[in-house]
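pasting for ref
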Amino acid sequence: MSTIIANQQYGKDKVRLVKVTRLPPDPAAPHLKHQIVTELTVRVLLSGDFDASYEKADNSLVVPTDTVKNTIYILAKKSSNPTLQTPELFARELSLHFLSKYSHISSVDVLIESHNWTRIQTTTFSPVSSSSTGTAFPTTTTTKEHPHSFYRAGEDKRVVRLVGTRTSEPGKTLSVRYTLTSGLKDLYVLKTTGSSFENFHKCENTTLPEMADRIFSTNIDATWSYGPLIETVGSGKSHYEGLNFDKFFAGVKQMTLDIFANHDSPSVQNTLYRIGDTVLKCFREVAEVSFVLPNKHAFLYDLERFGLPNKGDEAEVFYPVADPSGYISATITRKQAHL
């Protein structure tokens, strides 16, 4: 029996980088340095003419994964998207670099997670200390963004997955087909009312009671993809570069939060669909959107046995259950017209 390599890819995973971008002074604090920080975790995987390295131990065409790692940092420094705050553009630069430099590479798979650093809102731009040193903390509650101090606002992340595939012959003008997915990950949300789950299917194995009012908590993962993206290098600004990825990300995140907060949810499934339906109606550039919403249960704790009411309008004490958890997912796309 003979065997062959059906598919292969390799590269560098979990490449973490922080980039600081220096800006002109903020007029509100001209004496302080004004900077932007971006933290990314990057994976780059290469596919191409590498079968010999697997089958014959011939490494002559293998681009070392250490080279892949170094290239990520080098391009982070040289990027035309200097803050790296639009990860879709950095993913494109990485893809084009490897396809342009190495003719034996046929596709580049880039995954980027952008971590959530938010400017600290501070009441003053002057050093403060305790009253024991003779300087009191300010009493004002008016705040402003600090020019170079940040906090981790949450564990939610902006994510990008880009696969760039060579469509031209090696040695010819480079043409690339992109498969691009943008998204958000680990957006943890909770509402204390405005959610129910009733009239569900019941059988002899059903013990779940109907709930006209319940806590709704979930950790949202969302991804959205775009239509075909083709680029021929050197032919002018590509359609890829013309897409407003920051607008899409901010819009999808805000729609998700708005609908989660304001929709009287009869089920996780229905809330999920309403969000996806709204995204597709608002952004024609988005071809489809997918969501994963694990149901993070919080059940009433039985205090009746201690003589304390804890049901209905007096329901106040709950206990969260990490697992098992519900797992609800769906992909929403546009209905195709029948000819």
